[in-house]
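Sample intake sheet
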Amino acid sequence: MSLLLVGFFAGRFYLQSDTPVNVEIPCSWRSGIRQTVDRSLPDTHYLYSEQYGWFDTTHFATGKPNKVLADVRRAVQRGGGVITIRQLVGSNITGYVAHYDISPSVTNEEIYPVALGIYLDWSMRFEAWQAKLPHSLFGPLTSYALEDLPSQYIGFYASSHNIPIEQVFACYLGPVQGSEEGPPHFDIQAEGDAGGLPEVVRLQNKRFTPLVETEVGWRPTKWPKDIQLTPVNSSPQTWRFVSEKTWYLDYRAYWPTSP
């Protein structure tokens, strides 16, 4: 099994303590020209990029991708085993837990793409869980929001490279604007059903790539090549989903350590 992770460990960071900081790699690693960028991001709930759409800053760490990586690494070093991914929701009122089994066949070279495959699978299941009753009664527009999955993908990229999320934007995604209001939940399409009336549809994004508003409507956009990662898919020789649980009110029953 050989799957390529495009962009993994393409270069190193050389940072200075001043702000803005000097970034040599990977922002300008191809040309070798030293480049100065500002690492700071707006201190807001949402970020908006003209080229890559919306991001939710609270989703950069959803499911703790850094812990997923550490747990997968530990399981591989032990010859396989089960890992658990948890997420508290609504001030710890409820939450979602899923378990994954890592095959003894996974090698050290496959730790990162296996962790990515698991994290992407968990993220999709988490969004689907949010759409189910009774959670959907309290957050009917939360599942598959435009910004959720792209934000989690960027969070995993930053964790896998051990770099701050600010650096991902500075090096690859460019400038963003801050906002406390998120993207629209609905879109009015000019051509509706047979009656010819405009149709109101809920905007959802079930991909890990951005959905960006254009002159012809909302369209998916690819990530820059340097941050496109390829996951290892589920199989008997890699990893598999085992089970999932939901808790209400008493998260400690499913969270033996502090969240």
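Comment: Residues 1-25, 29-34 have pLDDT under 50 and may be disordered. Helices lie at 65-77, 111-130, 135-138, 148-161, 165-173.
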